Amino acid sequence: MTTDGSWRHTAPERGDAVTISVDGEPVRACTGETVAAAMLAAGAAFERDRSGAPRAPLCNMGTCFECAATVDGRLLTRTCLIPAREGMVIKTPGRL
Amino acid sequence: MFDLAIIGAGPAGMSAALTAADHGLTVVVIDEQQRAGGQIFRQPPETFAGSVLHPTAGYGWATELIRRFEADPRLTTEFGWSAIGVLHDDAEPDGLCVAINHPEHGTRMIGARRLLIATGAYDLPVAFPGWTLPGVMTAGGVQTLVKAQKIAPVGDVVLAGAHPLLLLVADLLIRDGVPVREVAFAQSIPTPVDMLRALGAVPGHLRMLTETGAILARLVRKRVRVSSRTIVTAARGTEHVSRIELARVDRRWKVTGAPREVAASHLVLGYGFSASTELARQIGCELVFDSPRGGWVVAHDERLQTSVPGVFVAGEPTGVAGADQSRAEGTLAGLGIAASLGRAVPAAAFAEAERGIHASTRFSAVVQSIFEPVRGALGDLATRETTVCRCELVTRGELDDFLESSPFVSNVNAVKLSCRTGMGPCQGRYCENSVGAILASAREQTIGLGGRFSAHLPIKPVPVGDLRDLDAVTEQPASDGSDTGRSAS
Ligand SMILES: Cc1cc2nc3c(=O)[nH]c(=O)nc-3n(C[C@H](O)[C@H](O)[C@H](O)COP(=O)(O)OP(=O)(O)OC[C@H]3O[C@@H](n4cnc5c(N)ncnc54)[C@H](O)[C@@H]3O)c2cc1C
Ligand code: FES
After folding, report:
1. What is the DSSP letter of A34?
2. What is the C-alpha separation between B432 and B122, in angstroms, rounded?
3. In A, which residues are within 8 Å of B463 by CB distance?
4. Mutation to probe ligand 1, out of B7, B31, B39, B137 (largest number of atoms < 8 A from CB)
5. Domains of chain A by range and CATH?
6. CB nearest to B140's CB, from A2, A61, A75
7. What residues does ligand 2 touch, defined as CB less than 6 Å away?
8. What is the pLDDT along chain B (489 residues), one digit of tens a residue?
9. Spatial separation of the C-alpha atoms in residues B321 and B367, rounded to whole Å
10. Residue (of B319, B287, B276) closest to B125 by Cα position
């Protein structure tokens, strides 16, 4: 993705390629990369707030919870803290 | 039961762990990141071949500290685990139980005789119109994505705030070929001569100073506009930031003129740091308000013990003072904890640790005085429509109306109970500053007088099912203390 507002990879040597699923769409990631970084680089949308407004990672250090999503069925998981793994299922149904 | 549990593997936690182990203590270190280093020295993942940590100029010691910490077989480490609260152990008079949680492995309890809070700091949040839009991110957030995750923003970037970290981040971005449009500082930027005069009494920090000068020169060469007395008043866009409003401010950061608009896809905010004190709050430690040192900070005695016996604190939660001071405090805390458990610690060791702190304080005090945020003016950036509490969607207008209709409310916890500010997943970390400033200006009182949010277990929310495990048996270190093995999670 090279649209303005998204993110791109800089280091060519990353971990082994894995695929995670974000709201049913395959997203390419690599081992070691956090789910949030993979989603940013793929231009994937994060969970919307209760009013339906878009949100995205703010702190990238586990304090703000703006990157939280349902990961493998677990609610409120901070995607900026967890490394991507093959087959991980991320859902962003919107906040309660 | 471990002798010592340390929360946080930054410079403070790492140096405390090594010092405590040198005095024969069994130590467990818990950090929710995947690797040691803390925020400033966040390491790239081990799987990224060829990507290693390059500490900022002046922090060459970091590489060696991390290497020693990672190679030390005496230490037990729990990476990827969050400390969500601390309980007193009913069975053991001086025992503490730390509840830790992992997104895949649930909750465990770890028993320890002493606790060290080395939880660091996070970027000072400032509420203004549009700050919830995707594309708005903190300086720390962008820095760690660029340095540790090796990704860079696409499109034009504006950096705004009041902290020198903005210059480091702007430089990082430029090195990755990112078009940086402007770096805006709310204060008048101290010239290198001002800095030199202020830092003249502080030997050993010249490398950092020359680095700052070199960065400024590189920005100028790349035609990046570096403006002073300029503040960001709004971020605009529908699904993502596309425009940013910047306005002139006076000496006290009050907006003086109509804003100008700059097109950009990313806005990076760096107003300074807030100490991470939620664990100390949950345990019941006394806190004091100290604006230049990061707002609410944890009170302690000369050996860094908090008001709660057995609970110590080191690094940014004692006051945001930079990596050198965090490391020095970690060493002192390690000695103090060893002494409190009856280990023989020579007076000379304490004296040397105190000298280390003294040396770094001379530097940090200068930095703090130059870069103290003007909290009242930052509070005024939120308009009536601005979302102040990002989690519970509470606007400035709702707060103002409540404060007007409830003239006897003068404490932020009372505001929290009525308006729900601070009740969402971030537990008030991102609205306490704004609520405190807004309350202070409505009541014409100091921010410190308005008090602070309290914190409860779990300090970082977990699914309800994960709390059932809180009754779990408390874990013990291996009996001989030697095969305490590292958890691979
Ligand atoms: C992004 C960023 C950049 C910075 N850059 C500079 C700089 O260039 N120069 C400078 O002097 N200072 C800088 N600072 C200030 C910086 O905080 C200190 O310099 C230094 O990192 C502080 O060390 P510390 O050990 O006190 O805390 P930190 O390094 O912040 O370490 C705290 C650790 O505790 C962990 N933690 C916190 N709460 C929990 C919990 N509940 N459960 C589990 N783990 C937890 C965190 O994951 C973190 O790893 C920066 C700060 C940030 C946030
Ligand atoms: S981006 Fe703030 S918690 Fe993940």
Report:
1. B
2. 13
3. 74-76
4. B39
5. 17-91 (3.10.20.440)
6. A61
7. A 36, 57-60, 62-67, 78, 80
8. 999 999 999 999 999 999 999 999 999 999 999 999 999 899 999 999 777 888 877 788 999 999 999 999 999 999 999 999 999 877 787 899 999 999 999 999 999 999 999 999 999 999 999 999 999 999 999 999 999 999 999 999 999 999 888 999 999 999 999 999 999 999 886 665 566 555 554 545 556 667 777 888 889 899 999 999 999 999 999 999 999 999 999 999 999 999 999 999 999 999 999 999 999 999 999 999 999 999 999 999 999 999 999 999 999 999 998 899 999 999 999 999 999 999 999 999 999 999 999 888 877 887 787 788 999 999 999 999 999 999 999 999 999 999 999 999 999 999 999 999 999 999 999 999 999 999 999 999 999 999 999 999 999 999 888 888 777 666 767 654 443 333 333
9. 8
10. B276
CB of B51 within 8 Å of any CB in chain A? yes
State how far the Cα of B110 lies from the Cα of B79, in Å rounded to an integer.
14
Measured CA to CA, the distance from residue A40 to residue A35 in angstroms comes to 9
Distance from CA of A20 to the nearest CA of B (A): 16
Is B191 buried (19+), middle (13-18) or exposed (0-12) by CB count in 10 A? Answer: exposed
Around ligand 1, the residues with Cβ closer than 6 Å are B 7-13, 30-33, 38-40, 56, 82-83, 118-122, 140, 143-144, 165, 168, 273, 276, 279, 315-316, 322-323, 326, 460
What's the longest Cα–Cα distance across chain A? 40
Residue to mutate among A60, A75, A79, A88, with most B CBs inside 10 A, is A60
Structure token digits, residue B443 = 């009541």
My answer on whether omega of the bond before B292 falls inside 30° of 0, hence cis, is no
- The reported pTM is 0.95
A9 interaction partners in chain B (CB closer than 8 Å): 150-151
Residue type, B16: A
- Residue ranges and CATH numbers for the domains of chain B are 2-122+274-369+470-485 (3.50.50.60), 125-271 (3.50.50.60), 375-450 (1.10.10)
Q: Is the ipTM of this complex over 0.90?
A: yes
Q: Mutual orientation of helices B322-340 and B61-71 as an angle, nearest 10°?
A: 40
Dihedral sign of CA atoms A48, A49, A55, A56 in order: negative
